[in-house]
Specification:
Blueprint lengths: L2 H14 L3 E6 L2 E6 L9 E4 L7 E3 L22 E4 L4 E4 L15 E2 L4 E7 L2 E6 L4 E6 L6 E2 L4 E5 L1
Antiparallel strand pairs: 1-2, 2-3, 3-4, 5-12, 6-8, 6-11, 7-10, 8-9, 10-12
């Protein structure tokens, strides 16, 4: 895959606001992830037998944030764990398994809180703070937006 095509794909991802794009062309496989931060807008990784290379695009003007979700009542205070991506929220690894966490559970830093499925990839969301789960702000199977509050940890 030539560099002009890669540059076009990176520009497409950064301008469109999508979080991730994966393209397969012959034996070449390119995955571009838009982190949505002031850091590089995307990253390209070759997953074929060739040496691993990364190409970073220059940061562009950030796209406007999606409309804010309905805020939770101010009665509950504490750390708000937010969604790092757009996807589908799941409280358990599969329908037969128990939930990762429930209200009242004590969590540690790095403990899995939930899974967000994005583009057929299951992403475990880990706790950034230790504490007790005070509120779960999403329903199982609900679609979530980037930066949407998921849990309140006190």
């Amino acid at each position: 895959m030539d560099l002009r095509k890669l540059k076009t794909l990176i520009d497409l991802v950064s301008e469109s606001g999508i979080s991730e794009l994966e393209v397969n062309e012959g034996e070449d496989r390119v995955r571009i992830v838009n982190a949505g931060s002031p850091a590089p807008a995307g990253q390209v990784v070759y997953a074929n037998p060739a040496p691993v290379q990364a190409i970073q695009a220059a940061p562009t003007a950030s796209a406007p944030a999606p409309a804010a979700a309905v805020e939770t009542p101010a009665a509950e205070t504490g750390f708000v764990a937010k969604s790092p991506m757009v996807g589908t929220f799941y409280r358990a690894p599969n329908p037969e398994s128990p939930n990762f966490v429930n209200i009242g559970d004590t969590v540690k830093v790095g403990q899995t809180l939930c899974i967000i499925e994005a583009m057929k990839l299951l992403n475990e969301i880990e706790s950034e703070k230790a504490g007790v789960i005070k509120e779960i702000l999403c329903e199982n199977g609900q679609g979530v937006e980037f930066d949407q509050p998921l849990f309140i940890i006190a």
